[in-house]
Amino acid sequence: MAYTVSFPTTSPLPGPEDLASWCTEQGEAFDHDGPDVLSLRGLPVRLLHTGEAIRAQVDVTPSTALSRLTRVLFDLSVRLGADVRLVGVGEVNRPALWLRLADEQDRQRIAGALERASSHSAPDEVYQGLWGVLGALGGGRDLRWEATREQIVEMKEVGAPEGISVEEAAWHDDQAEPGDTIALPVSGDLHIVAWRWLQEAWPNLADD
């Protein structure tokens, strides 16, 4: 999953050459993807200079060094005299950004481990264990691993008192009707917790 980070600032914006010099000073090797785009070689980050703003496009992978990645982004924000905003979320501090990216990273890791479990001698046991962990995390919510989306979702009944209204459901499924059950993405750090359990319970699956 790709994320876009912006750096809103009223300070004078450095030019593309200044941005390249800053990367060199930080020890971050890069390639030019056009006159106004720098792709970092050591991190899945592209820095875009639009002329009016600088943005970072981040592609999280299972092996991304997130502490280093967030350090680079926040060091850049200091250079720009800017806040750090995650598009779709708003202003974030370094721990909040790390958690957001770590949850996505662990979602990918869980998906990879479950794919490897398909050839395991007891794949049902892995899924049953994950089901139990999600039940403990749910606090009364119906949490499940959705194989198609490869993520943890919450199941809600359309039109039920504790479910979701038809109007709200239409944002997720325009054919949803009362009585249907739909899967909704969940926020929080659930993938981080589920991955820690899987990593400890099934270390042979967790090793890529």
Describe the protein's architecture and organization.
The two termini are 19 Å apart. The chain has 2 domains: 2-92, 2-Layer Sandwich (TATA-Binding Protein); 122-206. The chain is α+β, with helices and mostly antiparallel strands and 208 residues long. It has helices at 16-25, 66-80, 94-117, 123-138, 166-169, 190-201, 203-206; strands at residues 2-6, 30-32, 37-40, 45-49, 54-59, 85-86, 90-91, 143-146, 151-157, 181-185. A hairpin with a 4-residue loop joins strand 2 (30-32) and strand 3 (37-40). The mean pLDDT is 92.
List key phrases describing it.
208 residues, alpha+beta, TATA-Binding Protein, 2 domains, 7-stranded antiparallel beta sheet, 3-stranded antiparallel beta sheet, 7 helices, 41% helix, globular
Brief overview, please?
Helix content is 41%, strand content 21%.
Compute the number of structural domains: 2
Number of strands: 10
Q: Helical region count?
A: 7
Helix fraction by DSSP (H/I, runs of at least 4): 40-55%
Instruction: Note the run of SSEs as H and E.
Output: EHEEEEHEEHHEEHEHH
Strand order of the largest sheet: 2-3-4-5-1-6-7
* Cα Rg: 21 Å
Instruction: Output mean pLDDT.
Output: 92
Note poorly predicted spans: none
CATH architecture of the largest domain: 2-Layer Sandwich
Main sheet attributes: strand count, strand direction, barrel closure: 7 strands, antiparallel
The gross shape turns out to be globular
CATH topology of the largest domain: TATA-Binding Protein
Fraction in beta strands: 15-25%
End-to-end CA span? 19 Å
Structural class: alpha+beta
Task: Output the CATH class name of the largest domain.
Answer: Alpha Beta
